[in-house]
Amino acid sequence: MAGTRTFSILKPDATQRNLTGAINKVIEEGGLRIVAQRRIQMTQGQAERFYGVHAERPFFGELVEFMTSGPVVVQVLEGENAVARYRDIMGATNPAEAAEGTIRQLFAQSIGENSAHGSDSDENAALEIAQFFSEADIVG
Ligand code: GDP
User: What is the pTM (predicted TM-score) of this model?
Assistant: First the structure.
């Protein structure tokens, strides 16, 4: 494997505006390889499990509703320091605070509808990847 892996979701605000290719271009130009990718409609159960750590947060219901409001693209990204690199490529959670040229600065609509998810640690990346992909789906 060339480097490490992270898990990515292109969120419903992105797929709804036909931005999959535009965001993938930013990912690839940022030095990560898309080694697995699938477009899915998340169920409420999948979204609740995926964002389980946020279950007590006031925006949890809104987040689950948003993530199931349309198709998402789940991805595995690979490269050197993939987790940290993808968080740099995505930019801050709130697009108003996201650095120039980041996915969220370029495309996000609000702190909730912020176009992309990326894992926050290698440990969570492995758990998140396993929720949506088997090893046979990932071709580096
Ligand atoms: P991330 O790691 O940058 O995605 O940020 P967090 O782990 O803090 O939050 C997870 C996701 O919850 C974010 O990407 C947003 O989609 C959503 N979120 C975070 N804060 C808020 C908020 O204040 N309001 C709403 N509606 N959604 C939020």
Answer: 0.97
